[in-house]
Fold this protein.
Amino acid sequence: MSLQAIVIGASAGGVHALLQVLPALPADFPAAILVVVHVPPRRDNALVALLAEKCRLTVKEAEDKEPIMPGTIYMGPPDYHLLVESDGTIALSSDEVVNHSRPAIDVLFESAADAYAERLAGVIMTGANHDGAKGLRAVCDAGGRAFVQAPATAEVAYMPEVALAACPTARTVDLEDMPSVFEEMWEK
Amino acid sequence: MSESIEDIEIRLLLDAVYRHYHYDFRHYAQASVKRRLLQARMQWGYDSISEMQAAVLRDETMLPRLLNYLTVQVSEMFRDPSYFRALREKVVPHLRTYPSLKVWVAGCSHGEELYSLAILFEEEGLADRTIFYATDINPSALRAAQAGIFPLDRIRLFTENHRLSGGHSSLSKYYTADYDRAVFDKPLRERAVFSDHSLVTDAAFGEMHLVSCRNVLIYFDRELQDRAVGLFGESLVRGGFLGVGSKESLRFSSHADLFTEFVREERIYRRNAR
Ligand SMILES: C[S@@+](CC[C@H](N)C(=O)[O-])C[C@H]1O[C@@H](n2cnc3c(N)ncnc32)[C@H](O)[C@@H]1O
């Protein structure tokens, strides 16, 4: 069964890391990419504009109930959780903070694992908290592929380290190799 | 893809809750409902959702606690201050033209949105001619809304939000603080009617000039959203206003043509004249 989506979680240092990875992906990249970065809960989502300018793929703020399309990067809006519904649409929610965060990486990863099972890849990048560890574990348990940014290449190593401990079968990838690893998943 | 056992169990539980207690969560956005039901299962120590279902059906005292999982009570006073600023600057001038006003806060949670509007109307000199209807399906939330008491540690945020919303008085004018809580003034809630009302199963309210329903539609699937928007269309006077949450819209509703966007960025709509 072919992969359908990649979920990415990042926190401290995340904006810089995403700017290294997402703009390097080709315009015909076939998967949907859903991203949660911990940012302060303000309404204007400057990160979307920044990435949209640099990426060849379409970048947009995720909207409630919209169908998830291949080749599109969806960013979770500040102050809302981002979830995937089993019918392949996006759901936003203003549920309680999880791991002190909204959006929380665990919430995205667990719902995506549920919706996509083995057709999903999960990636935990730089960060200073443990959000995403349970989520990455859920991706593994559902048969999906798990990756963590190599802690040595992370601005803050803690988050990928904790995720790796929770999901020891996750593959460790240097930041600079990430775009090619993403592309390889679709080549065969 | 075939449905997992857990998903089947969740459907059955929601069906059971509907049949026995007449609370209808069957068409709420599923991913979030599932998350919260699995949380309840874990915290209550049941091995499966089916086991939890049996308990919920037989023990009525569990219903309020289940409702606290199935409904999300996250709110703030003057949440998204720019929404309240837009009401103040763009909607209030139209409301002033009516001799009496009815305002419906649908899904009022613990009353944060209601007190925000009551204070805004007070500041704008509209309070004396207004009746507020505050509705929710969660009885404990409604009781809290009626009491108008908030933990003191939330007041700093509320005060900042109120200021950003263009408030031209001090929020502290409207509550009395004791050592750990703020009790909002009685006159604010004397003009409010609190009632149990579901946007899923109950009928329209009459002749409203403003309906504020924020961060409720987001929990519904498209079909339910559509029903609720239809109710708002029926409940509003021609030229009345509807405000929804900052990530909600009427885009998917078949009743969208009853409304015109009034303040687009703030998701404020106006009921068309015909
Ligand atoms: C996230 S809170 C929003 C509170 C407030 N309106 C705000 O925006 O801050 C959602 C509220 O909707 C209520 N609710 C859920 N389902 C409902 C229904 N079918 N009819 C009316 N209210 C409902 C919940 O009990 C909860 O109080």
